[in-house]
Design a protein that fits this description.
With 288 residues, the chain is an all-alpha fold. 74% of the residues lie in helices and 0% in strands. It is built from twelve helices and no strands. Helix 4 packs across helix 6 and helix 6 runs antiparallel to helix 9. It is elongated, with a radius of gyration of 22 Å. The relative contact order is 0.14. The N terminus is likely disordered.
């Protein structure tokens, strides 16, 4: 057991060195670690209520007492950002996981089985012909406004992206010699997909996870800003911006601070995704 763990850790170290060879990728990973750590740990060690209303403290500028100021109801903006991070990160995680799971299944079926390729890809093309935000608005309007419906809508929106990438890779893999050898040995199709195709899809899938995570956080903020996203009583970063929009000229920090959290998180995820792609690309590894 110890030998297996040591071998696993030993294989991770070279990958980590390649991933963090660029300082900007390392900084992005640290920013994400800080955001996730604060979002998970601070609410557990602090009993402060992010929804506590103090009208006498409304629209106070940032100070030592309130690091990011207060909003129109006297609520601490920094505290709401920290608590809202849990919802925004949850939306991003569930959306990325659901889109990757569904997209990988559709992409593998379309890429491996020629009869399914045309009908599945025509549906995918039709969905991708709509802008993400418009398709999200339409789906949320049909499903209804709630946290889980927003996540379901975003999964549907981003599944075609993953399906296209997985299909393209599967089309190449199914023609390789090791797949032909498995067929010649009488290996069943489900086992070929599970043992030979899926492991070789992990590189593009990992990259898509980071990108869709960032897209989902931005999309939720956009939907909430337009009033068709998460209900206002759930303090996501998007609902915080939407709720404080009319006070932007009097208290810019009520929008700037949650907006900065969105930008830093999404940008860090994008940069980390680029780093993962570069690390997993054999051509880039050889050039390095």
């Amino acid at each position: 057991m110890k030998a297996a763990v040591s071998s696993f850790v030993g294989s991770l170290l070279p990958m980590a060195r390649r991933l963090f060879m660029r300082r900007i990728v390392l900084v992005s990973a640290l920013v994400l670690l800080l955001v996730v750590g604060v979002a998970l740990i601070l609410p557990l060690v602090s009993d402060a209520d992010p929804g506590a209303i103090e009208i006498s403290q409304r629209l106070h500028a940032p100070s030592m007492e309130h690091w990011a100021g207060t909003d129109e109801l006297g609520r601490d903006v920094m505290l709401r950002i920290v608590h809202g991070a849990r919802y925004s990160l949850l939306i991003g995680f569930i959306t990325a996981a659901g889109a990757v799971l569904c997209g990988t299944l559709l992409g593998m079926l379309a890429g491996f089985f020629r009869r399914l390729d045309a009908p599945l890809m025509r549906v995918v093309d039709a969905m991708m012909s709509f802008p993400d935000i418009l398709l999200g608005i339409a789906l949320v309007s049909i499903l209804g406004v709630s946290l889980w419906n927003v996540m379901l809508a975003l999964v549907i929106v981003y599944t075609p992206r993953v399906a296209r990438v997985v299909r393209a890779t599967t089309l190449v893999l199914r023609e390789l010699l090791f797949v032909d050898a498995a067929r010649a040995l009488g290996v069943r199709t489900p086992r070929i997909l599970r043992k030979h195709i899926l492991p070789n899809l992990m590189s593009p899938i990992l990259v898509q996870v980071t990108f869709i995570f960032a897209y989902a956080i931005l999309a939720e903020a956009g939907l909430s800003f337009l009033g068709v996203g998460v209900p206002p009583d759930i303090p996501t970063w998007g609902t915080m911006i939407a709720g404080s929009l009319e006070y932007a000229d009097k208290a810019f920090w009520t929008i700037f601070c949650p907006g900065l959290a969105i930008v830093l998180t999404a940008l860090s995820l994008q940069i980390l995704g680029d780093g993962v792609r570069d690390m997993l690309d054999p051509k880039l590894r050889k050039a390095a």
